[in-house]
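Sample 1 of the test manifest.
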Amino acid sequence: MRREHIRSDAYVYRHVGEEHLLIALRRDRVAPLLQLTATAAVLWERLGEWTPTSELTGALVERFDVSPEVAEADVDEFLTQLASIDAIQSREITS
Amino acid sequence: MTVAVRSEPVSALRGRITAYSRPRRIPISAVVEIIATCNFSCQHCYIAPNAAREDVMSLEQAELIFTRLAAAGTLSLLLTGGEVFTHRQFAEIYLAAKRRGLLPNVNTNGYLIGERWADFLAEWPPEMVSISLYGLSEERYRTVTGIPNAFGRVVRALGLLRERGVKFELKCPAMTLTVDEIPAMRDFAAAHGSSFRFDTVISPEEKGSDAPLALQLAPRRVVALEEEMDPGFSNARRLLERPKAGDPGRLYHCGGGMTNISVNVHGGVSTCVTSRQTVGNLLEESFEAVWEAMAAKVERRLPDHHPCNGCSLRPMCYSCPAVVEQVTGSPIGYVQQYCAMTHLKAFKLGLHPTGIPRTVTEGIPAGIPTARASAARALPILSFG
């Protein structure tokens, strides 16, 4: 089953200093301020529009010296984290 | 490779961002005045007494300023006034800041915070709501603010915010009208789950009279209050022990114009909210142009013969270029009252043999601007007996 993802509007991303920040807009978030690793920030940028999981994995393979298997595992874990803080929406790709 | 979302204490993160920003002059903290008028008529106020109806920032102006500040690297934003909750578009302005990834803080007198605003702040949390407290009774509030039945409304606001988990702090200008209640205010704040701070330097009106300076506490009273509130002067000791960075002869040794920026209701930019002399306008010029003009101001050095040049007490001094500017018209001025307060505290700390500034015995060097006549008359008379 192929899935695609997009950022939710629950957070605002800022690159301040050397920090990649996710700033919560509303209450009841895990924390008002979260950080992304630099690698995660690359994926976050991609999530500005609906993006299939495979494209996120491909982005990591293309940009960093990493095998497809490792990239896939990292992307899965990252998406799980984002989902747990309501930072993304996901859906199945039907076509 | 780590692809992850992390959470760490905000203080640690902020420390790292500040360390990165200072040498690069990134304005990570901003103050924006969105309205100059107020629903209180405080005797000590430096801004509202001369404010006119048109001294209000529009939503569109606020959006432009927030966009420019965010692009320049600002993270923390203090919305202030006047009284911000009297602004008809406060909610929209506040949300415009949040949606640009700014972390809003709010200065208020608390009077207008009822259930609706408390719910709003709970839903869209600020970093901090900073509430000015002017006494612990209706009578005292009426004396300071001119408004009847205000204390009860402020107490209610504290309860509403606390019930909803909105972070707030209480603060008070320590002046002749409030000084006797400052220790009790600290206890009151603690009982409401809040921290408390007080400020002992009163500024003159921005465009009007120096009358507020008559409310300034005399040096002995300031130091006595600080000792009562902080036996051992641990705050002053901490300031003195901080590693000294940069050029000691530099006029500005705070974050003003370096990591801090202040914008008034008309877009005018100054080093901090205390300084009312603007170096440019963020509604009319690019951030880069304004910030370059700011550099010319904050990179100035103290004249060699200035009494403060080389003074080891500067880190704990009550005087700063912004308050001096207010009283003398120039950031390079000198106000003996502030110097006397600092030296008296230094005497208490065992850091000065007499507690008397040398300008008292040797005079103030020629060419150094001093308090204008009306300000000098309003400030408390110095006595070193």
